[in-house]
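About this split. The held-out portion is used to measure sequence recovery: a designer receives only the C-alpha cells and must propose an amino acid at every position. Recovery is the fraction of positions where the proposal matches the reference. Here is one held-out target exactly as it appears in the evaluation file.
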C-alpha cells in the first residue's frame, strides 16, 4: 500500500518549533520569578509561537497530516501555548 499523503504533510516536526519557542519562557516561569525583561521576552516568544502554530495549521490544511503522533504533538503545542498565554495575562 502506498502513502497517498503529500511529502510536505504535517509531521511531529511541524509542531515542534512552536514548542521550542515556548520552552525558555516556560522554564523561567517554572523555576524563578520572571523579571520585567523576561516578561517582555516571553510576550515576544508567545507571538513567535503563535505565528509558528498558524504556519503549522496552514500546512495541515494544505497538505494534511501523516500520523497520529503529529496530532498528539499538535495538542501538546496548543496546550503549552494556552498555558503560557494564561500565565502571561495573569501577571
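Reference sequence for scoring:
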Amino acid at each position: 500500500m502506498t502513502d497517498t499523503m503529500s511529502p510536505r504533510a504535517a509531521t511531529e516536526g511541524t509542531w515542534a518549533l512552536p514548542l521550542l519557542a515556548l520552552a525558555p519562557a516556560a522554564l523561567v516561569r517554572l523555576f524563578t520569578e520572571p523579571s520585567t525583561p523576561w516578561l517582555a521576552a516571553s510576550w515576544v516568544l508567545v507571538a513567535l509561537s503563535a505565528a509558528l502554530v498558524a504556519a503549522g495549521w496552514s500546512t495541515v490544511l494544505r497538505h494534511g497530516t501523516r500520523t497520529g503522533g503529529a496530532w498528539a504533538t499538535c495538542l501538546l503545542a496548543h496546550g503549552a501555548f494556552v498555558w503560557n498565554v494564561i500565565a502571561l495575562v495573569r501577571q
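Annotator remark: The chain has a mean pLDDT of 84.
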